Amino acid sequence: MAQRTEPAVAASSRWIDSDGIRYPRGDTHAWTPGTNQTLCGVPLSRARLDRFAHVPWSEALYLAELGEHGVVLCRRCTGATQSDRRRWVRTDPRP
């Protein structure tokens, strides 16, 4: 089975479009399928988050930009999924 690189979505509630497909609504987190926690460390079962394995994180970003369905992205999950973020590096170490 191929390893999926982009995380899926877990959210506190859902809405159903006209085709009958479930989409996230409310507090939305990035989630790696096969694990029981989000990228920011929130346990799915204890937080009662619904899993949306068919919805990639990039689609959740798009839904949040639209602002029509009440998708609120987790700041920590958004930061964890950014590939271009710069990590802190010490340039002049102390002796």
Could you describe the 3D structure shown?
There is one protein chain. With 95 residues, this protein is of the alpha+beta class. 22% of the residues lie in helices and 31% in strands. It is built from 3 helices and 4 strands; from the N terminus they run ββαβαβα. The chain has a 4-stranded mixed beta sheet with strand order 3-1-2-4. A hairpin with a 5-residue loop joins strand 1 and strand 2 (22-31). The protein starts with 7 loop residues before the first strand and ends in a 14-residue tail after the last helix. The mean pLDDT is 85.
Q: Strands, helices and their partners?
A:
Blueprint: E1 8-16, E2 22-31, H1 44-47, E3 50-56, H2 57-66, E4 71-73, H3 75-81
Parallel strand pairs: 2-4
Antiparallel strand pairs: 1-2, 1-3
What's this model, at a glance?
The chain contains three helices and four strands.
